[in-house]
Design a protein that fits this description.
398 residues; 17 strands; globular
Amino acid sequence: MFSFQFFLFIFGAIWVSGNECPLLVSDISQESCINKGGNTESFYYDLKKGSCLPKCKNYANERLKNCASEQKCMPGYVCEHRCGPDDDFKQISCKSDDECRTATQHETAKCSQYCMAEGKECCMAYHINMDDYKETYWSALRFKPTCNNDGTWSAKQCKGGLNGRCFCFDPSGNRLFGEALFSVAEKMTCACSRRKAELDSVRITTLHCDSMGNYESLQCDKVSKQCWCADPQTGELKSMVVPEKAVKVLPCFLVITYGSQYLRQCESKKFAQYMIKQKLARHGVTHIIEDFLLCDNDGSYGAFTINMNNAYCTWRNNLKIESWQDSIQSGYEHINCNCARDYVKYGPSQTCLPNGNYKPLQQSLLKYYCVDGDGFAKSDVFAKLSVTPDDSYCDQFF
C-alpha cells in the first residue's frame, strides 16, 4: 500500500511552486482544439490554459447542442432523445413529452434531441463526464485519455503522472500488448500492437512487437516465408525483403538477439496449430478441436492459460502466478490478470481479485478509492460510508 512519503514524492514531482506550471503528463492538445474558421465539426474551439491545465472552451456544452435539425453532432457523439433539468445535462432518455414530464415531474418538460457521448468506448466521453485534472493522493494526475480527431483513442495512453506508466490501446479503448514506465516511454508509439491487432482479426500473423508495442527490427511473415527489417516506431520498411532462408543477410539480424529461429515458444505452437488446421481444411475437415493458446505480441505466453474449465494467470514463460484463477463457465472475456502480472513485475501494492484482475474498490485503513482495470485511481479517496461499499460502487466512476 502507498505510504505518505510516496505521496510527497509524487506531489513534489508534479507540482512546481510559484507561478510556474507543472509538467503536464497527459497531452490533450489535439489538432481539432484549434479554431479552424469556426468549424463546429472540431472537438474543441480554443485551447486555453487555465490554472496551468489545458482545456478547450465550450466543449462540454456540445452535449446540450440540439440536433433536431440537420446539424451534425461532433465525432464521438450520437443524436438521442433526452430531457431533464439543465444541471443534469439532459441525462433522462425519453420518447415523448408525456414520458418526459412523468420522469421529471415538470409540466413544461420537453423531449428533444441532443448530442450525447456514445459511452465509455468513446474517448471524448471521459472528458465531459469527469472533472478537470486533479492532484490526488493515489494518482499524480487523474487519467483522461488522449483522443484522435475522430473521437477514437490514441494508441499510446499514459496514467499516473511522472511516476506512472504508458499503455497501448486500440481505437475503442481496449488495452493492447505494450507498456512502459513514463520515464522511458518517449519513443513508444504502439504502432506494432495496433497493426497486429488489425491483422490478427483477419488471419494469423507473426509480426513481433517489443515490450512497448513498437516493432522489433527484424520481422518475418511465416505464411509467405519472407523477412525484412523495419523501423521500430513506424514499421516502415528499412531493407530489402528476402526469403526466410536468407534472413541472415539482413542488417538487422543478430543471432545473439533473435536466436536461431524466429518464432518464440508460444507463437510457435500456435502457428503449428494454424498450419495443421489449414491442411485438414483442404481435406474437408470442418470441425477441429485445438488447445487454447493465448500469446502476447512478442511471441511469449499471454496473461492466462485454460485448463479443466479454469483460467490460470500465467507469466511469459507459461508458469502460473500464485493461485490466481477463475472458472470459465460464463466465459473468460472479463479476465485480464493485470494485477497478477503487475505483482510479478513490481511487487505487491494493491489488492487483486481472485481471478488476478485489480479489485475495483481498494482500501487503505478506513479509506477507500476506486481503480480502473490497470490499477490507477478513478475516484478521490473517501471515508467509510454508512454502508460498507462493494466493488459495484465503483461503476459510477469513469
